[in-house]
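Deadline looming. Please check this record:
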Amino acid sequence: MKINHLTSAEENFMKLFWKMESFYLKDVMEQHPEPKPHQNTVSTYLKILVEKGYLSTEKEGRIFKYTTLVPLEEYKKFLLKELSHNFFNDAGKEILELLFTEKLISQEDLKGYFDLKIEIKPTKVEEPKFEFADEILSPKKEKKTKGKEKEKDKEKKKKKKKD
């Protein structure tokens, strides 16, 4: 079944129609919240939604009975796929990251949904040890001892010269 895009107004009417599933024009007029649209406006949207394949009609005497053809869940899937394709390069990971960032979903939500036993935590990165860099950057004790040894050698030579 091919699903077509709906305008904002069409979506608003469909939300009401999905709740009723099967209805007459008078049912829509009764159920629609205030401010209620004019009956001609509702009739026009019903005609458009029939043409788009969202509703079917069955004539009962002089009136029509309308029934939803596209389930709400199918429309939600359609919208999510369109959103993913048009704005997230078909990457579900990007959608999840946005949902986490905007706090629209939590890790607890996902744990409950997937019944996960793992906990997602930031990993601690150990600092690498660079032995060669340490040797170059910090002077070794040997160099200091060599310097001291040279001084001792100089002192010994001085003593020898005096003797």
The helical segments are 8-20, 25-31, 39-51, 72-87, 92-101, 107-114, 131-137, 141-162. The radius of gyration is 38 Å. The mean pLDDT is 81.
